[in-house]
């Protein structure tokens, strides 16, 4: 097989992935693509199918790769319930950047200059090589672990992770950051184990002011219009209080009459570290554990991280400081990953607009 033909299976897989996994909730079919591409003269579904078959790949003409790039550069292609290709002139600056990068990738796959999957997105969890990264969790309060033999240091079955709050968020994030930063020292600890030098590394804080004293210390030192109201304090289940322009609003979790969690609230915050201006601090927080996990998975879940990362870059540009409060629906006891590209999922964003 010639070098030009070699990457075509990868192109076919990429085109199929764009349709099926970029916006998995949309359920885009080959027929919808055929209609969107052809307009009044739809393309055949079999033609779309031939572009997606890695075993018998057919490379689309460049004009159709341009159509793919334009359509998948923005979720606005789904507005109104009908899949359509927006005129390039109607795209925002961020969307045009997405289109350019996606088109370059597809052309490289078609022309044989690349042989594997898509170029990784600019990931918010990727740091410069050799910079230390410290993930900080709260120590689970004694009253919640007193009955667990695994959390008792005197027990033969002792497992230190049982003494951590938010272990599911920790495991999810630690694995992702390690994979993205193979040349960095990545460690995790509880807030009471933090050493002096850890404060000046890249800090990633899991959990809120209720248990995590480092989260409380950081929030007190930065200029952020969001404060966490602890549970059972000013509000029955607490929430995130936003105070701007003399107005205040509390975003609360939702529970049913039997205290079952129906919807948590997640807060993701990134800023320059108050302890080292050449490092960052990131807070992933929820009113309950499923909110904290949702804040983490917004940018680690393979089904959502690319679109959420693209949204952050489009919405906030090169601004170092940003904050997003979002809903985390709970279904069957499981917290779902928030899709930040859906307006109804975003409860509050700061700053108001990218510069």
Quick recap of the structure?
The chain is an alpha+beta fold and 355 residues long.
Largest sheet, if any? 9 strands, mixed
Query: Please, how many domains?
Result: 2
Give average pLDDT, whole number: 87
Report the structural category: alpha+beta
Shape: elongated
Radius of gyration: 23 Å
Oligomer, anyone? single chain
Ends: how far apart? 49 Å
Number of helices: 10
Helix content: 25-40%
Strand content: 15-25%
Weakly predicted, low-confidence segments? 1-7, 115-121
Give the number of DSSP strands. Answer: 12
Written overview of the protein:
The longest helix has 19 residues, at 93-111. The protein has 355 residues and is an alpha+beta fold. It has helices spanning 8-21, 30-38, 45-51, 62-71, 93-111, 142-145, 167-180, 213-221, 289-297, 305-316; strands at residues 133-137, 186-190, 202-206, 226-229, 239-244, 247-251, 254-255, 261-272, 280-286, 322-331, 334-335, 346-350. It folds into two domains: 8-111, no CATH class; 133-350, no CATH class. Helix 2 packs across helix 3 and helix 4 packs antiparallel against helix 5 (93-111). It is elongated. Strands 1, 2, 3, 7, 8, 9, 10, 11 and 12 form a nine-stranded mixed β-sheet that branches. A three-stranded antiparallel β-sheet has the order 4-5-6, with no helix packed on it. Helices cover 30% and strands 19% of the residues.
